[in-house]
Amino acid sequence: MDETIVLRKKHHLRAMWRTYFRTKELVIGTILVSIILGIAVLAPIITPFPDKQNLVYRLSPPIWYGERSNGFLLGSDALGRDILARIFWGAQVSILVGSTSVFLASIIGIPFGMIAGIFGGNIDNILMRIADIQLAFPDVLLALAIVATTGPSLQNIILAIVITSWVKFARLSRASTLVVKELTYTEGARAIGASTLHILLRTILPNIATPLIILGTLQVGSAIITESALSFLGLGIPPPTSTWGGMLAEGREYLMVAWWTSTFPGLAIMVAVLGINLMGNGLRQILDPKLNI
Predict the structure, then answer these.
(1) CA separation, residue 46 to residues 82, 232, 286 (Å)
(2) What CATH number is given to the structural domain containing 181?
(3) 175 in a domain, yes or no?
(4) Chain centroid to CA 148
């Protein structure tokens, strides 16, 4: 009996790996995200002094320009700082903001939506009207207003993204709960006297986790874009902390003479968000193949 269970587990694991490698979007997304994560983790070791200034080397071009590059692989900015080093450290900020804000938004939004879906009636109406009011404001505009009011800092940026993101988790968890609570196994749990909390945590939540995981993955990319937009508009983490959006803003004045100052931070944002979105779409294909068209 034990051998049979072990064989089934091995077969299931092999099947998962085959499915993973057949999903090209997930493989490519995993590679890109792994590179960004590796850069963020190794930044303090590879480039310990990202904000070291040397005006002698200001606006040095990338290394393929020859001697004019002064040894900077991706060039330097207007203060003589290594752009590659600052991109590495900016990855830490983007990953921290993206993962933390999505985690907190899910903790708030998922219970909010599940309670609205399981109880219905006036509770559902009140909670969803609150969500509708939230949706009436564009995400970036609301985030701008929050950060402008509370002041630019890492904590306030995360707070702003949480406030603009929780409603997405709330509405999806509510919609999924409305479906699952009518299914046979939920009715069976209710019939044997299971408490509402038990039904929510042990019956409904495991069965609505798939779309929530997919949403959470995609929201990380959205959070990175929001943080970069706030930094670009001057409401991000104050200098000298390196952020991709802040580097874009600093380099826009020199685009005609030093295109690399903004181009490479912009490419970093594109690669990070592309990798996360590919992972999200790949997970969607594996975890919920019925969504495929």
Answers:
(1) 12, 26, 36
(2) 1.10.3720.10
(3) yes
(4) 22
For residue 62, tell me if it sits in a domain. yes
Residue located via tokens 């938004």? 105
Nearest to 84 by CA among 61, 115, 114, 55: 61
CA distance 284 to 272: 18
Phi first, then psi, for residue 176 (nearest 5°) are: -70, -35
- In total, how many domains does the chain have? 1
Question: What residues make up the domain containing 61?
Answer: 50-265
Question: What burial class does residue 209 get, using C-beta atoms within 10 Å of its C-beta: 0-12 exposed, 13-18 middle, 19+ buried?
Answer: middle
Helix/strand/coil (H/E/C) assignment for every residue in 45-92:
HHCCCCCCCCHHHCCCCCHHHHHHHCCCCCCECCCCCEHHHHHHHHHH
User: Under DSSP, is residue 117 helix (H, G, I), strand (E, B) or coil?
Assistant: helix
CA angle 210, 278, 144 (to 5 degrees): 85
- Structure confidence at residue 274 (pLDDT): 94
244 closest CA partner among 261, 263, 265: 265
**Model confidence pLDDT, tens digit, residues 37-53:** 999 999 888 887 888 88
Residue 197 located in a structural domain: yes
**8 A C-beta contact, residue 158 and residue 101:** yes
- For the chain, how long is the longest CA-to-CA vector? 78
Q: Are 22 and 285 in contact (CB under 8 A)?
A: no
Residue 11 lies in a domain: no
Is the Cβ–Cβ distance between 53 and 242 less than 8 Å? no
240-291: per-residue pLDDT in tens?
888 999 999 888 888 888 899 999 999 999 999 999 999 988 888 777 655 5
Considering the entire predicted model, what is its pTM? Answer: 0.87
